[in-house]
Amino acid sequence: MPMFDFHCSQCANDFEQLVRASTVPTCPQCGSTTVDKTLSRIAPAGKIEAIRISNRKAADAQGHFNHYTPGERAKLLKGKRV
């Protein structure tokens, strides 16, 4: 099921919900079915980069980068793309 963002026309609540194509979403705040599908916000690039670096450091600590050369590992852990 895809995740969609919605805006309630009655109470102006913005929310996201997992919805099947045949399901009519309801506002969790007021219960109205008068909702509009909205565009999802994009995560800021800085946060995505920080998450990627954090995940790489965790993978390195678990030994997943042992097959890389020391230079390649250094680039991976500094956030540079290899």
Describe the structure.
The protein is α+β, with helices and mostly antiparallel strands and 82 residues long. The chain has two domains: 3-38, no CATH class; 45-77, no CATH class. 30% of the residues lie in helices and 18% in strands. The chain has a three-stranded antiparallel sheet with strand order 2-1-3, with no helix packed on it. A hairpin with a 5-residue loop joins strand 1 and strand 2. The longest helix has 17 residues, at 45-61. The two termini are 34 Å apart.
H/E topology pattern? EEEHH
User: Numbering strands along the chain, what is their spatial order in the largest sheet?
Assistant: 2-1-3
Intertermini distance:
34 Å
Q: Please tell me the overall pLDDT.
A: 83
* Residue fraction in strands: 15-25%
Low-confidence stretches: none
Query: Can you count the beta strands?
Result: 3
Relative helix content: 25-40%
Précis, in short:
The protein is an alpha+beta fold and 82 residues long.
